[in-house]
Structures are given as C-alpha cells and as structure tokens.
Amino acid sequence: MPDVGDGLWERVRDAVLAESGADRSLWNGVLMYTDPGTACFGEVRRDGSVALHRDLVVQPLQQMYASPERIATLHQWVQRRAALVTAVHEFTHLAVPAGTDPARGAVSIWHVKIAEAVAEAWAHACLDRIAARALPPHLAAGIKDVACAHQYPD
Questions:
Q1: pTM for the full predicted model
Q2: How many CA atoms lie within 13 A of 139 on its CB side?
C-alpha cells in the first residue's frame, strides 16, 4: 500500500496512542487493502497488520494530499473524514497497555462486536484532535468542518 502524506499511517498510530494514553501499538507496520469487492472499510489482522478499503479509505486520503489546497466539495470532505475515522478506528484496536503480548492482544480484540462499537464511538469522539495531531493544519480544518456517519450505528 502506498504511503499517504509522507507518513500519515504512522502519525495516525502515534495520535491514537497519545489520545488514548495507551503505551504502545501492536501494529506490525504492514498495511494492505481489504479484499476487493468487500464492503469492509477496514480490519485488523491477527498478525498486527491493518487492511483498509482501497476506494473508500485510501483513495480519499490520497486525493486529499494530492490537492493540498483546501478547495474540495462538501462531499469530498465528508469522504475524507469517513476515511480518516476508519483509519483511527483500526489503529484504536491495536492500542494496548505496556506488557501486552502481541499474539494474545490481537486475538483478544478479534471480531468482538462491543470492541467494534467502542472503537467506532471513540474514533468519532476524538477525530478532530487526532486530525490536528496527524494532518497539516489546512487539511485538519477541512476534516473538522464536516461530519460523517458511524459505520456501526447499532
């Protein structure tokens, strides 16, 4: 998967750690795409890798950095916010206390519905602060100006 914004994924990971107070991330540094044709926006894999939807998550963030001027439609900013909240959501699953065994940590959060709901709610609640930490100010401002729907509404 290509880098976005010269280290965006690492900045998102670091911002999630800072906002959550977690000691470390179980992310193994590997990013990949979710399976083509799936409706899954993102997922954490058992090995600590993160998979993101190419069209719905990665491309909106690539496009945001490709046109650094803040000129974009409201729809584009909503797509960008939704993409960033998905990335934050997935990295939230990997934020853990010190001493967490990587093998057991990734398994313990695997496909647990309440973990999904909590990660989604937390990602939305702190997204503006994470955007301020992870994005250039003019891009963070665009993200902060819009809202997007939760992926796990129930």
A1: 0.85
A2: 20
